[in-house]
Amino acid sequence: MAEGFGLVVRFTCKDQASAEAFDRLVAQTVEKIRAHEPGTLIYAVHEVEGQPLQRIFYELYRDRAAFEAHEAQPYVKRFLAEREQYLADVAVDFLTPITGKRAPVEGCDGV
């Protein structure tokens, strides 16, 4: 489990209307991530219980190169540009996996 590259991002939306628009933008982006990014192992989006304006993203990539390929995609660039209008705050923590358990991913050996 020592390989890989991950991050956790906490987004705080401006208000409920912004949260709904942000969620629509996220859904459009995640659809393309699923279809086009084999190096993106996990891209999970969560609403925070009791905090309806917050979203937590957990992202795990095969390696730093897979993350960089993700960031270079036109749909990710669109997401990064358009999200700002909906957000009051963004906090990012980059992660280096040490140990753990995850479901096997088809086409990935021992990552």
UniProtKB/TrEMBL annotation:
InterPro entries: ABM_dom, Dimeric_a/b-barrel
Annotated ranges, domain ABM: 5-99
Alphabetical UniProt keywords: Monooxygenase, Oxidoreductase
GO molecular function: monooxygenase activity
Highest taxon listed in the record's lineage: Bacteria
Pfam family of the protein (one): ABM
Protein name (Swiss-Prot/TrEMBL): Antibiotic biosynthesis monooxygenase
Organism of origin: Carbonactinospora thermoautotrophica
